Structure formats: C-alpha cells, structure tokens
Automatic annotation (TrEMBL):
<feature type="transmembrane region" description="Helical">
    <location>
        <begin position="21"/>
        <end position="43"/>
    </location>
</feature>
<protein>
    <recommendedName>
        <fullName>Type 4 fimbrial biogenesis protein PilX N-terminal domain-containing protein</fullName>
    </recommendedName>
</protein>
<keyword id="KW-1133">Transmembrane helix</keyword>
<keyword id="KW-0812">Transmembrane</keyword>
<keyword id="KW-0472">Membrane</keyword>
Amino acid sequence: MKNPKPKIQNLKFKVSGQVMLLTVLVLSGSILGASTIAGYLMFLKVRGASDVTNSAKAIFAADTGIEWELYKQFKNPDYPKPSLSNNTNFISSNDTQKIKSIGESNNIFRAFKMNLQGATTTLP
C-alpha cells in the first residue's frame, strides 16, 4: 500500500501557488487602476494649465466680478451684473468683509478673493 501523504502535500502546494497567483493578479490590477486614475487626473491638470487663452479669459472674468462687487458696495448697489461677450462668465459673492469671484471660460476656472477687513468704507 502506498503512502497517501505526498498527495496531500502536493495539493497543498497547488493551492498555495493558486493563492499566490491570485494575489499577484489582484495587486497588479489595483496598481494598474490607481496609475490609470492618476494619469487621467494629471492629463486634466496639464490640459487646464496649457490652455492659456481660456485661463486668461477666466482671470479677466474673475477680475470683472471683483470690480462689479466693489462698485456695488461703494457706488451703486443696484448696478446690474455686466454681461461678458467672449463666452465667459463669473460668479461673485460679497459679505461686506470679503469678496470672492470665480471666473469661468470653457471649463477653466480662476478665482480671486479680496478681504476688506480694516479697510475704510468711505472713499477719499
């Protein structure tokens, strides 16, 4: 009669090899997924940084928002929001202590924030 013990050890090594192979595949897939996501995010950042024309348009739109809020605060509170003709837009907020304006042009966003704390409220 043959000893059945070597067959059990042989099966143990096969299961161990399968677990190791499965672990390597799962780790490789995780690393591949993480690097793909990181590459895509870098692509979006580089594309946004290299689009100089739309970046400049967004900066000027944000500046327009700051100037509009300052004009409303110090001169005429009922002055209407200016319309920009070059496919840009801005969103601004004013709580009398800080003004925030976000300019947008073709999904490129630039923002300005102005703090008015300690500033005089009367013009010379």
